[in-house]
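DM between two lab members

TW: hey, do you still have the RNA polymerase ECF sigma factor entry open?
JB: yeah, one sec
JB: this one, 193 aa:
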Amino acid sequence: MTAHLPAAPASAAEAARSWPGRAHQGDMAATEDDFAEFVRVALPGLMRYGHALTGNPHDAADLVQTVLEKVGARWAKVSQNCDDPRAYVRKAMANTHVSRWRRTRRETLIAEFPDVPAQPRHDRLEDEPVWQALQTLPPRQRAVVVLRFYEGLSEAEIADTLGVSCGTVKSQNSKAMATLRKRLGPLVEGGDV
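TW: and the structure you got?
JB:
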């Protein structure tokens, strides 16, 4: 049985307007319903964003679940204090991903090789040159590129989402674009991408 996810709204502003329960902040059941509706509307876009950040759908699902659990516990406060809760969740996802990456990027040594090597599942995007080049970027640069070119956010919105200055967004985007041009140069010039 395949679950059908609703199409994501065209913009963050449309998504913010599309969930109805903001007026019911005081009622716990209404707040839970409000959060459930927010998740229903925002989930497809958050999963795509998480996939672009982490590089695979499994880690994306873990990232989205972790962040939504934290946000859900504070939903009344988040929805009351944030003009765009989707931007708040994206920022939390980016920060959580960077923190997780910093913790796990260290090499882990093991005493013995496992008896049976794990067979990784083939991701359909794995062989795409743009996807491969995007995966080589550091997490902060990847987040800026995804927010800028995939989500269509302005530099100011990206700065707000990631909690950095506009200058940092510009420099991270510039570095990422230089790296991507270097890696994809022959493909772009040949028209293969």
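TW: got it. Confidence is low (pLDDT under 50) at residues 1-26. The two ends are 35 Å apart (CA to CA).
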